[in-house]
Amino acid sequence: MLLQMPNITPELPDSVPTVHDELSMLKSLPFDELMSRLVSSVVSFAINLGIAILVFYLGRLVINKLYKFVSGIFIRRRLDQSLATFVLSMVRIVLYFILIVTVIGILGIETSSFIALFASAGVAIGMALSGTLQNFAGGVLILLLKPYKIGDFIEAQGYAGVVREIQIFSTIISTPDNKSIIIPNGGLSTGSINNYNKEDYRRVDWIVSISYGDDVDAARRAILDIISSDDRIVKQYIEDDRKARQLSDAKSGGMTPTSILLNTAPVDRSAAVVVNQLAASSVDLKVTAWTPSAYYWSVYYELNERFYKELPSAGISFPFPQMDVHVKGK
Fold first, then answer.
1. In terms of domains, do 234 and 306 share one?
2. CB-CB neighbours of 207 under 10 Å
3. Distance separating alpha carbons of residues 79 and 133, to the nearest angstrom
4. Could you tell me if 284 and 209 are in contact, meaning their C-beta atoms sit under 8 angstroms apart?
5. Global pTM?
6. Residue 324 within any structural domain of the chain
7. Domain limits at 164?
8. Residue 151 to residues 184, 238, 270, 294: CA-CA distances in angstroms?
9. One domain for residues 230 and 294
């Protein structure tokens, strides 16, 4: 015997009730039931309002505590002030936005349309300020990755100078002739940058031209004697030079260094003089030596002058372009 199961499929309403239908239904209700529903709605809204206020104040308290906690971490880590201010501001704005959306949802207000409106406004602003936002993103990357810092001598975007300020949207450098150049961070973050202060030691190169017929070995010995007499020049290994300078600084400051950087396989950085080119009227010698980056330009200019003044006393002459004219008699 087969049992027939009753049809328990719920019947869906033909249409969603409109506001007019709701008002008509309320008018048809007895006064007592209407007042009961009204009181119930007011009590429910009051409870939600109280919860929303409580959540707002608790959320604001949590945000302030979190702000101070993150700020303390940045201070202990000695994070760049510009980057710390930017990150803290962004964190506070995002947390307050989440808190406001949460409070609105507790009050029973639909938040999806609010979020959609905010997203549309963000897209419109982003399209209008695409170049500015690129510079903004570049500034954030520079502050995070630190390809250069204030005081470094850099070359980028066709300009060279000392970095004076690193702002969110641009970097300000001062050229050797004291011009202030403002470079947008967007190009700096995606382009090539030559940072002359990134390494603590640099190689200095000179080209010293001597006359044909001069003794190359005598010129080499004279040049190396000039270089070796300068205390700023690395004698053989950068690691030994760095260690000696750290010890000297520690003694002058009354401190003992806690660590000395030593490479297990140091590279010979002794000064060298080689024949670089046999030019039309001179033998060009290439001179190389290593020095701390802070002394680069002073070493370059001062030794250039010493070469000119002291090499002639060693029997070395400097050539210059000349022309021999032979007059034929009639």
1. yes
2. 12
3. 23
4. yes
5. 0.56
6. no
7. 147-195
8. 18, 23, 29, 11
9. yes
How many domains is the chain built from? Answer: 3
CA distance to 10, 215, 298, per residue, from 178 (Å): 83, 44, 19
Question: 36 and 62 share a domain?
Answer: yes
The pLDDT of residue 262: 44
Same domain as 213, residue 231:
yes
- CA 236/CA 227 separation, integer angstroms: 12
Contact status, residue 262 vs residue 239, Cβ threshold 8 Å: yes
- Contact 251/237 with Cβ under 8 angstroms? no
- Do 69 and 151 lie in a common domain? no
For 255-299, the pLDDT digits (tens) are 444 444 444 568 888 899 999 999 888 999 999 999 998 899 899
pLDDT digits (tens, 9 = 90+) for 167-211: 778 889 999 888 999 998 888 888 888 888 888 899 999 999 999
List the CATH number of the domain containing 210: 3.30.70.100
Name 27's Cβ contacts closer than 8 Å, sequence gap at least 6. none
Query: Residue 37 and residue 98: Cα distance in Å, rounded?
Result: 32
Q: Contact 202/293 with Cβ under 8 angstroms?
A: yes
Summarised one tens digit per residue, pLDDT across range 14-73 is 555 565 665 566 566 666 666 676 777 777 778 888 888 888 888 889 888 888 888 888
Which amino acid makes up residue 225?
D
Provide CB contacts within 8 A for 111, sequence distance 6+.
101, 104, 105
Residue 14 has which token pair?
Answer: 């033909």
